[in-house]
Amino acid sequence: MRARDLLADFPTVALDSPVLEAARLLADQDLPGLIVVGDDGSPFTILPGTEVLRLAVPAYCQDDPALARVVDEAHADAFLHGLGVRTVREALPRHRRELPVTDPGATVLELAALMARTRSPLVAILEDGRLTGAVTLQALLDRVLAS
């Protein structure tokens, strides 16, 4: 089985897209992450949903989870609204990791190794320098476990 057999169309966001829009896209389409494209339209990085949360959750709650408990329920339910007009660029991790990109001929083991190495729930698939879609961790595990 190859990447082309698991390939699916996948939404992208730009670096300057509002991160709240990215969060809605993640939720509406039940995605593990998003492909962030640069100004030239090629993959720049993968934005896991957890990085959106990292930006939205107040630092004091991340540093001391007990503090999250003292926030009243009404305010706790609205923490994503604190993202305001922040951009996807601001949600990206400070250190750039290896970009999880491969070609349609990659085997499932190559895909799995790339996901594991880059800690990414998806891999962007490029053919002739053009983004053709992505393979998600869920799609990979579904097919491998069904075999």
From TrEMBL:
CBS domain segment(s): 9-41, 96-144
Database matches in CDD domains: CBS_pair_bac
Highest taxon above the source species: Bacteria
Pfam families in alphabetical order: CBS
SUPFAM superfamilies assigned: CBS-domain pair
Gene3D superfamilies: CBS-domain (3.10.580.10)
Protein name according to UniProt: CBS domain-containing protein
Organism: Nonomuraea cypriaca
